[in-house]
Structure to design on (192 residues):
């Protein structure tokens, strides 16, 4: 998974008090001259200036389209869950920025093959446990969107086959560049 970005603000975004705070802080960064414009902000998530969407920049390169769709479904579930919790008056968890950044680094380094940081507990847990905690948290949103069964099946495929980076390393070790090229060609025709 790709987890790095280039720029002066390539980490988890800060917690903003409201939309005005978001705008004020971005403007301050632009006014420094270090950030030439809003498009250069490379937080792992930010509001789009062009569309009513959230841009998420972590894990943005996948071997197969279905893996990108899985990430999009999980992100949508997170956003819908966060909005529902905010509307219900539930306080947003104030997670330590450095812990979130460490979690992103660990995920980029280990993928789903080892342990990941659970940002809520701060514990290093088996990747499957961390992913299961996430899915449990957003399950109502996944079910509402009709994504729950597909997400479950897609995650089972990843647990069985490995993420794209793992598959690439495994194929390269077993068959060299020709096998890797076959994997790439096959990934272009994989069904989502």
């Amino acid at each position: 998974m790709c987890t790095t970005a280039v720029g002066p603000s390539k980490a988890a975004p800060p917690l903003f008090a409201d939309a005005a705070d978001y705008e004020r802080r971005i403007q301050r960064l632009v006014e420094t001259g270090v950030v030439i414009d809003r498009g250069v902000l490379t937080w792992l998530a930010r509001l789009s200036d062009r569309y009513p969407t959230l841009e998420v920049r972590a894990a943005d390169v996948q071997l197969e389209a279905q893996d990108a769709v899985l990430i999009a479904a999980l992100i949508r579930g997170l956003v819908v869950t966060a909005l529902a919790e905010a509307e219900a008056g539930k306080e947003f968890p104030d997670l330590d920025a450095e812990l979130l950044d460490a979690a992103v680094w660990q995920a980029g380094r280990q993928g789903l093959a080892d342990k990941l940081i659970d940002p809520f507990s701060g514990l290093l847990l088996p990747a499957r446990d961390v992913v299961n905690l996430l899915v449990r948290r957003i399950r109502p949103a996944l079910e509402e969107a009709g994504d729950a069964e597909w997400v479950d099946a897609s995650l089972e495929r990843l647990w069985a086959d490995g993420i794209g980076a793992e598959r690439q390393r495994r194929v390269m070790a077993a068959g060299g560049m020709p096998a890797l090229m076959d994997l790439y060609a096959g990934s272009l025709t994989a069904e989502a």
Notes: The first helix runs from residue 19 to 32. The mean pLDDT is 88.
